[in-house]
Design brief:
The chain has 15 helices and 10 strands. The chain has helices at residues 38-46, 70-90, 101-127, 134-158, 167-185, 190-202, 212-215, 223-230, 232-241, 248-256, 277-291, 303-313, 320-330, 381-384, 399-402; strands at 2-6, 15-18, 33-34, 51-55, 68-69, 338-341, 345-351, 361-367, 372-380, 393-396. Strands 3-2-4-1-5 form a 5-stranded antiparallel sheet. The chain has a 5-stranded antiparallel sheet with strand order 9-8-7-6-10. Helix 9 (232-241) packs antiparallel against helix 10 (248-256).
């Protein structure tokens, strides 16, 4: 049985089913592991884990009868998540996009690809000892911002496309896109969005000072290696401080994107309001993109599962209010998501509908029962309402599993 326990209830011999924290925040290869000794428990305590899940079929059980079964906890989180999502919607919605998704997606593809090439070049040059070329970053941020203003769903959907071997550079572009979209949804001026966008593109510049054998290590990091990995935030801050033309906001984002509201983050162990609002926004975006990205030894979560984790962790690690704003920014079902329906069909989300986050428009394209593609058909679930629809969304699907390219249907 999978049970949720407090960290102080963890004992050697237990098997951790889920560390209940983002993989970017811990030194272990996977989120599952056998607790061999007290040193392992000390490592887990050091990274700020407060609650986690154990598998009693693979390791020791807990004697405390109050330990909560994971299924029970999931039901509670799901209910709270639904309630808060509905409450967030009542607070207001973002203005409709200036142009249709179909019109912006081709332009967004070019912007996304160009941004990746520029970031790859700029960060690779830093690794060679060269200075950050801000004059190359500025036009990229401008083009991303223009695309976001036309229709932010286009670039947000493309941000989920990553090559496992090129993760650091593509992650930087994704964080930039998500941060600019976040700022636009919250009504910030373009001048602020420029500074935040530069911070998003350069937030991991300090990783260029971390040796490749640590960055790409396929096994658990040692304590010194994990310390070196964590140093990238402070190293990035120093690099950007010495770079002419980098705005202060971008430096703050680079320094604070791993800080946590409860003081368990790094490099400065800042708490709550000690972390700037843009540092807090960056921490949310950074973790969301990491959770939803596939890596060689890590399969990405579907967006709903990742948002539920952010929602759950907002009680300690993140600002609850900002997490709610972020959910409204990207939607529960982001454009390009592949979803399964109660009828046994599969569809691509083509409109997240920020007025009704739980009921997007889905383009049905595949029938699981027959194993065949079908003539595309759009279903607007917001028009039918829960319980009234002839069909319902029941979950997310992996494009790789079905050999479907969702972006071919946008």
């Amino acid at each position: 049985m999978i049970k949720r326990i407090r960290r102080d209830q963890l004992k050697p011999g237990m098997y951790i089913h889920d560390l209940n924290c983002s993989w970017v925040d811990h030194p272990f290869l996977l989120n599952t592991l056998k607790v061999e000794d007290e040193k392992t428990i000390a490592k887990i305590a050091e990274i700020g884990v407060k609650e986690l899940f154990i598998d009693t079929d693979k390791g020791l059980d807990i004697s405390d009868d109050n330990a909560q079964p994971a299924e029970e906890h999931e039901v509670e989180v799901h209910r709270e998540f639904q309630e808060k999502t509905a409450e967030t919607q009542r607070r207001g919605t973002s203005p409709p996009p200036a142009v249709p998704l179909k019109e912006e997606i081709s332009n967004a593809r070019v912007v996304h690809e160009d941004a990746h090439h520029i970031v790859h070049k700029v960060l690779s040059d830093v690794r060679l000892g060269k200075q950050v070329e801000v004059e190359k970053i500025d036009p990229v941020v401008e083009r991303i911002t223009d695309s976001v203003f036309r229709n932010r769903d286009a670039l947000i959907s493309l941000s989920r496309l990553k090559n496992k071997d090129d993760y650091t550079f593509q992650h930087s572009v994704s964080v930039c896109v998500l941060l600019i979209s976040f700022c636009q949804a919250m009504g910030y001026e373009r001048s602020i969005m420029r500074e935040v966008g530069i911070g998003g593109l350069l937030h991991d510049v300090g990783k260029m000072m971390v040796p490749d054998h640590i960055l790409n290590k396929p096994v658990e990091l040692t304590a010194p290696e994990f310390t070196m990995m964590q140093s990238h935030a402070a190293l990035g801050r120093e690099i950007l401080k010495q770079t002419k033309g980098v705005p202060e906001t971008a430096i703050i984002i680079t320094a604070q994107h791993h800080e946590r509201n409860d003081g368990t983050g790094y490099p400065d162990r800042l708490k709550g309001s000690q972390i700037s609002v843009f540092g807090q926004m960056a921490s949310i975006v950074d973790v969301y993109d990491a959770l939803t990205s596939n890596r060689v030894y890590h399969s990405g979560m579907d967006p709903v599962a990742a948002l539920k984790k952010l929602f759950e962790w907002s009680k300690s690690h993140f600002s609850e209010e900002l997490v709610h704003h972020f959910i409204r920014t990207i939607g529960i079902f982001p454009v390009g998501s592949l979803v399964s329906l109660k009828s046994g069909r599969i569809g691509v989300v083509v409109d997240p509908d920020n007025k009704d986050l739980l009921h997007p428009t889905v383009r049905v394209i595949f029938d699981i029962n027959s194993g065949r593609h079908v003539a595309p058909q759009d279903i607007d679930f917001s028009q039918t309402g829960t319980g009234k629809a002839a069909d319902q969304i029941v979950g997310h699907e992996s494009p790789q599993r079905w050999g479907i390219d969702p972006y071919a249907y946008l």
